[in-house]
Amino acid sequence: MSGCRICVDKFCAYKVPMFASFSCEELDEVYKLIKHRKIKKGEILFQDGEMVTSLVIVNEGRLKSYNYTKEGKEQIISILKDGDSYGEMYLLREKKFEGYLKAVTDCDISTLNKEEFQRVLLNNSKMCLKVLEVISERLVQVERLAIMLSDKDIERKLAYVLIDFADKYGTKEDEKVIIELPITKEEMANYAGVTRETFS
């Protein structure tokens, strides 16, 4: 894949970790199913209670997955950037969406119809394993978030957010890591499960 320039130019899916080890032929199967969309900042792709019918790939922009606490406060679960995908957890079962998926910026996305993608997966065990790997990573992220939110130490919560963002969005410069924040200060506070004033 890495040596195939034609593949890189042709397939928007090549930068998605789940598809990284696919051959050109396998990517071609995926590419035939892809539909492209441009969405505006603030647009909601999935909302609580609706059935998920597609896998979403972020080509450009930022999306956020979030829900609301019992008190009605927004709790951010994850921020999606270029190359990230969302919806794998719903690929293998019929389940209504829990929470919301919303555009933080104007975005260029691709979507894969769930039923069509399932048919491709049934004929390719390597693809299935890649999907399972991504689902496993999603579960690890949710587990980490749950542990962080249960921690009463504010400094540790903020440290978790900064480490998470440094890993995903950080650029190393000498001995420093520069983080281009993908969300507002208020949204970062929501992610950490604290008030904006406490976060500041």
Gross morphology is globular
Structural class call reads alpha+beta
| Proportion of beta-strand residues | 25-35%
- Give me the side-by-side strand order of the main sheet: 1-8-3-6
Radius of gyration over alpha carbons? 18 Å
| Order of helix and strand elements from N to C terminus | HHEEEEEEEEHHHEEHH
The main sheet comes to: 4 strands, antiparallel
The portion of residues assigned to helices is: 25-40%
Distance between the termini: 45 Å
Number of strands: 10
- Poorly predicted regions are 5-9
Mean pLDDT metric: 79
By DSSP (H or I, 4+ residues per run), the number of helices equals 7
Describe this structure in words.
With 200 residues, the protein is of the alpha+beta class. It contains 7 helices and 10 strands. The chain has helices at 5-10, 24-31, 114-122, 125-150, 154-169, 185-192, 196-199; strands at 34-39, 44-46, 54-60, 63-68, 74-80, 85-86, 100-103, 107-113, 170-173, 176-179. The strands form 3 sheets. Strands 1-8-3-6 form a 4-stranded antiparallel β-sheet. Strands 2-7-4-5 form a 4-stranded antiparallel β-sheet. It has a two-stranded antiparallel ribbon with strand order 9-10. The longest helix is centred in the C-terminal third of the chain and has 26 residues, at 125-150.
List keywords for this structure.
alpha+beta, four-stranded antiparallel β-sheet
